[in-house]
Amino acid sequence: MTTKYTKHPITVQGWDREEQFNFFKSFTQPFFNVHTEIDITPLYTYCKRTQTSVFMAYLYVTLQAARTADNFLYRLDNGQPVKYEGLDISTTLLKDNQTIAFAHFPFQDSLAEFCASAQAISQEVKSSPKLFHGYQGPDNLHVTTLPWFPFKGMEHAFMINDQEAGIPKIAFGQLEKREHGVFLPLSIALHHALADGFHIHLFLQQMSGYINAFDFAG
Fold it and tell me: Sign (positive/negative) of CA torsion 69, 133, 160, 37?
């Protein structure tokens, strides 16, 4: 499959995940899901102050974090592990007719650039009859959002080629405003041949770092 970002093969023999990879790669359902939440108060406050889309802002920091977490860059290519040099997002969007579409949001260097690009794409997608919009290769992060109700977790639908590629899937729920902050529920599904629960911890640490940086943003 043609990809946007350069990929590098990983030699399984001698890899630090060699035994885990060989054990989990043949599972009928090799993905594991973790349901958790993250404090986005600094990002939420910044968005309200600058009239920035909170939805697009948390997609942006999610993509930033995933691009710096090695295990979120791993994929399977013909059954063998590879690592991509970059990632974009393929996210669900609700169209004007209340059906969903899958839209490609390319990575941008700044939140402002990402929001401008994503907003233009969203406007086009919402009135389009198509299901898929833009690039949908394996070097995407698959994202969906359920902002309409309290969210305690989600199990994802999978196609065979999703499992073969090992694409991470993230689902977001309704924001929860509490006395001491604003929290974003999220569910993360990873292919167990390519990652373990500890790698979700590392990803969330990276995501928190990007969120907290908005405490100091102008």
Answer: positive
